[in-house]
Design goal:
The complex is a heterodimer. By secondary structure, chain A is mostly beta strands. In chain A, 0% of the residues lie in helices and 49% in strands. In chain B, 0% of the residues lie in helices and 56% in strands. Chain B contains no helices and 11 strands. Chain B is globular, with a radius of gyration of 13 Å. Classes of the chains: A mainly beta, B mainly beta.
Amino acid sequence: EADIYQTPRYLVIGTGKKITLECSQTMGHDKMYWYQQDPGMELHLIHYSYGVNSTEKGDLSSESTVSRIRTEHFPLTLESARPSHTSQYLCASIGQGRGGYTFGSGTRLTVV
Amino acid sequence: SQQGEEDPQALSIQEGENATMNCSYKTSINNLQWYRQNSGRGLVHLILIRSNEREKHSGRLRVTLDTSKKSSSLLITASRAADTASYFCATGNQAGTALIFGKGTTLSVSS
């Protein structure tokens, strides 16, 4: 599955903590995405990037922020985690001419 | 807003049987994609069918697309226990910036 890596795989943190979810890909893909998925539910796009220094908010309002300083790296940050942020976060990328997205294995976040 | 919607929500079959999942969408598309997600993992791209194609095969997978009905189906032939997963269809969002996914069909294949 992976040429796209997400860390940590699981994370349990307390309310109010700042966290960064890491996503890196080794394929040189320009386009990268963050999706949020609750168990058994659809994926919701929260952020995307078409290249270095390009980031946009997705269809689902999110209190998270992202950065894209290097092509291979697209971290997502929550400044102050809340229980409502408990979810699975999936990172994906696609290159030029590729048919489908490549997904990482996800980070399952629990905020207590 | 949700573009694709899969049907049924859940499907249970025996090994060796065929599994058919359907996807309906709302707006015009350039292509439609199917993905598989094993429990708690990321999604894996299975197959892409373009709007000018009606049928596509990949191994035990057969995908059809009917743009007049805005629907697609995924057929898995001779199912195996390892096919147990959730299956999602995906199409481009209205802005053309990313894929949007349905809620998926959860397939259980028992031996």
